[in-house]
Every structure is written in structure tokens, then in C-alpha cells.
Design goal:
16% helix
Length: 148
């Protein structure tokens, strides 16, 4: 028996599969669990280097510093914490949560030039700033050239 090929019917199945994948991934991230796509919530971190230090800026909106931990072990800096779901907007079988919440952890291998004893961290308006000063001997030095 011959069957007529309908490309639109195949597209509907593909679209359902893509929608399911996005739904599962989104649900796993908002619950702070690893999902089918392997996604997990992690805050955005910007890194910057100047002549005196490395700077890390971590976006943690809505979090208090008591909910964030910094750990340094064998030149590995780990930022971890938990963001709790504070508010749910529910209306007749409708729920919408777009902000990520749950436990997170980010780790960074620090260069040997960082002076671990002088690391400084502060948090203001949901932004964690970590200053990683360079050791004195690792800072670039200007050498004057003498004319003979």
C-alpha cells in the first residue's frame, strides 16, 4: 500500500520533540537540578585583569552575602550558594517562574601569581566582586635602558 508523504505531519512531530526538550531543560534549571540537557543554574561571572590584580564580578541578584560562600583550596576558588524561590505567581493552573533558583557552584583555577593571603571580596546590589591581588614579584616592571 502506498502512503502519501506529508512533510507537515513530520514537522509537527519534530516541533513537539523540540518543545518537550526545552520544557524539560527549563524545568530542571528553575528547580536547581540537572536535567535531560545537562543544564544547571550557574551565575554569570565576568573576569578582568589589570597590572595589580585579577577581578571577578559575579551576578547574584536577590541574594544576600550570607547565602554565598567562597572557598580557596589548592589555587581553586569556588563560589557557591543557594538562591531560594521567594515568590510564585499562580493564577488558575498557571505558574511562571523565569528566574533561576537552587544551589549553584562555580570554580576557577587561580594563577600561581595570585597572593592568596590578600584576596578580598565584597557584595553590593546583588553583585559579588572578588579582588585577587598579584604577588609583588609577578607584577610587570619597567626597566630603564641606559645609554653608554
Amino acid at each position: 500500500m502506498l502512503t502519501r508523504w506529508d512533510p507537515w505531519r513530520e514537522m509537527e512531530g519534530l516541533q513537539r520533540g523540540i518543545n518537550r526538550l526545552f520544557d524539560e531543560s527549563s524545568s530542571a534549571r528553575t528547580q536547581g537540578q540537572e536535567g535531560a540537557a545537562g543544564a544547571m543554574w550557574a551565575p554569570a561571572v565576568n573576569t578582568y585583569e589589570d597590572k595589580d590584580a585579577f577581578l571577578l564580578s559575579c551576578d547574584l541578584p536577590g541574594m544576600d552575602q550570607k547565602d554565598v560562600k567562597l572557598n580557596l583550596d589548592n589555587n581553586m576558588l569556588t563560589i557557591s550558594g543557594t538562591r531560594k524561590l521567594e515568590h510564585e505567581d499562580k493564577r488558575e493552573n498557571y505558574q511562571r517562574v523565569e528566574c533561576f533558583f537552587g544551589t549553584f557552584s562555580r570554580s576557577f583555577t587561580l594563577p600561581a601569581t595570585v597572593d592568596a593571603a590578600k584576596i578580598d571580596a565584597s557584595m553590593e546590589n546583588g553583585v559579588l566582586t572578588i579582588r585577587l591581588p598579584k604577588q609583588e614579584e609577578s607584577k610587570p616592571k619597567q626597566i630603564a635602558i641606559k645609554v653608554k
